[in-house]
Amino acid sequence: MLVPMIGSCTEKADTVLASVVWFTEQEPDLDPYRTRMIVTQRYLRIDEGDDGGDFLLFDRKKKTIYSTNTQDRRVLVIHPRPLAKPSPLALEHQALKDDTHYPPVDGRPVVHYRYFTNRELCLDVFSAEGLLPPVTQALREYHNVLAGEQAALLAVPEFMTPSGCDLANNIYVPGRHLQHGFPIRQQDMTGRTRELQDFTRAIAVKSELFHLPGSYTFFSVEDLRRGEAS
Fold first, then answer.
1. What's the rounded Cα separation, in Å, for the pair 203 and 225?
2. CA distance to 44, 142, 164, 229, per residue, from 57 (Å)
3. Which end of the chain is more exposed for a tag (fewer CB within 10 A), N or C?
4. How confident is the model at residue 153, as a pLDDT?
């Protein structure tokens, strides 16, 4: 299924030790594409493997997400927010485990779970128990911060979604697919898939990968609403 390359490297002044994870992602009616996650104790970076291209940076210490756009030379900033609003729909969640035995990944058992909300299948996930726990934890933190921003959009009618799966996956239980291990394959209710292709532990990466472009314009969703982002 997967033969990961496990490596290590000595950290230098201009580098930092990280876990690097590669996925293949696909959305309905689109060609598959690769994404890369680089995780350190301080940061999570998500990109398409291009060191100089667009990237998303999650500062785990500040609990803040930065999404860069090289074409517009702008950075969208998402600050942490509490989940102050209850769900506009009553939500009932269920996780069903498939007891079929699957090939292990890196010696870790793989378990298949289906996650439902209001009897609708929201996520279909194959999880490797105990695989890449630092990456799993970083993803939990990232999804929790993103959920706060998504919850704030519930006050904006054009962003409100009536689907229980949307509310569950994006706001109220955003990390439920991470509670049983690292997702080596996941598919949501829209048909979007993400599949693990490779990973490397404790490898030295350039510290500059976690630097934000100071010459870019920084703005928030609130700035967009007020028409202040340019």
1. 41
2. 6, 10, 28, 20
3. C
4. 79
State how far the alpha carbon of 144 is from the alpha carbons of 13, 46, 132, 148, 153, in Å: 31, 16, 19, 7, 15
The whole-model pTM stands at: 0.89
- Closest-CA residue to 193 (of 30, 3, 37): 30
CA distance 175 to 136: 10
> Which residue stretches of 38-163 are H helix?
133-152
Do 191 and 25 form a contact (C-beta atoms < 8 A)? no
Partners of 204 in beta bridges = 17
pLDDT in tens, 69-89: 999 999 999 999 988 788 888
CA atoms of 179 and 177, how far apart (whole Å): 6
**Secondary-structure class of domain 15-226 per CATH:** mainly beta
